[in-house]
Amino acid sequence: MSFSNRPLAVLLFSLILISSFSFAGLRWPGVRLPGEPVGAPMITTTGVLVATQDGRIQSMDSAHGTVLAPYMLQGNVSVAPLALGGSLIAATDNGYIEAVDGDRMSRKWIYPPLAGSSAGRSVRTISPTGAGVIETNLAVSGGDVPNASEMLDIRALAGDGQTRVYAIDQTRLVALDAQTGRVQFIKPVLEDGGAAGADARHVFVMDGGQLKAFNTAGEPLWALQTGPLFKTRPVADAAHGLVFVASTNGQIQAIDENSGQVNWTYSVNGWPMATPLVVGDRVLIGTDDGRLRGLDTRSGEVDWTVQLGGAVWGEMAGAERGIEHVVLAPTQEPSLAAVDADLGLLRWQYQLSDWPGAPAVSSHSDYAAIATRDRKLSMLDVSPMCTIDSPRNNELIGAYPQIRGRAWAWGGVERVALSVAGNTLDIALGGDGRFNSSPDLSDAREGSLAIQCLAISGDHQTEQDAGGAKSTPTLSLQLQKADMSLTVVDTARPGETLRVFVRNADGFDLDGLTVDFAGKHLEGQASPFELAAPGSDGPYALSVSRRGFNSAGTNVQVQSDQRPLLMVVFVLLLVVLGGAYMMFFRRKELHAPSMPAQERVGKK
Hints:
By secondary structure, the protein is mainly beta. Helices cover 6% and strands 46% of the residues.
């Protein structure tokens, strides 16, 4: 790849998925919600609905994520709503249950009913500016106020998937018709009602540390001590005649729906924080240690385990097409992970801005909606999908970063590519759909750079939105030049050959080096290389540079060989010293006293 040669500094990677192929799914990131989301969104034919704690049902246009006018419930919301029969059914903290038509954004029914005007009741509407909620007290009209005994302290909602809604308060189990809101029964059969689940033949309610089973008439069937639940609920599996419970004591129990007999128990070291999800013949269990396990529904044996990096929690969602099954699991990493429910392979993992809530999947399993704790709602592809696992946000990277990720599609991926500043690099996928690429960013411009991860499915569908581009969370990465080491002698004689070594931090020799030394400019050098020392004495600067690396430099002292001169000086010094010695003794003899002649004769 070719980039203009400018100094490298902060590099913002904006991961944008684009193509010119056929449209594969609607998506948009991070639409701001007016309040903290509660429960899973609801995907309709035209948009997406999500409940917020301040009592709104907020609607977004599915094509662009445009925020539409909300529907105001009768009170705030803390219990996860229920999507059933084309409606989003929500319970308010002041005891009402409302069914809101998902397409028309209008009330289908409310329980207890509000007949005409009501004493002691206020209507909640949006202010003209849309900035807040106006509460207006209505005139008193006798007989229109719900009896205090009708009002519910609602702790959970459950649906049979077809026609019935169950509301659980502290002491009562209430059954309502999902289309009309008419009461089917009210049974004071609980002491401390909590989380609940249901199918067409049963309703299961946590009552303290017990799981209680009732038939569709609200008659008790059995009770079993299971231990308390934390942010999970019982899950009915009518196909296998079981109900699954994941309790805080680390046990997952498969219980016979009709008898209450425990068929099997599986214990985990972690804490089950995700509601079990049944996909085919497996029940999926998520725990606080980041593991998602697929257990055989009949035996409780573990078929596979996959590590997702953060606690798997809340509600998961299943998606399927043909014989393929994928589970979407929210994690506290935070991310939304897609795992092959049959093979236990992580297909992709989409990084989110904050802890996620429960995901919702479209009817054709093409895309999913998910809200996060920071009040953002995103819609993203289920298939095809290409996600980058690393680098992560705020990481320091070099000019040759390793970009790792995953690509997946229903029926298989035909092609995956990274596009960097208009240059496309095809990526080889491993058998599990992973890729690992190291694009050359050494010439990248200072500032932002678009890196696109493109997945194309076997039917030539690729990730895009109605505008032709998909915006995924922006990773703010600081591109940091790598250091290199320079090794050479620090002194040399004129004309001496210098051997120079230039290596990276891992000790590997580098090529593509630019060298400046003694007025010479050399390019394309590869370590180790040789230089000739200049012919004259003096200090000379040696500088080596390479794209993507900090420059390295040192000084080489060139000096002539001084040994012959030293020998001359030494010989001269010896001559001088010898001469001085001879002169000293000569002078001594000249000054010595003379002996008389007779003494000299006598000595002879």
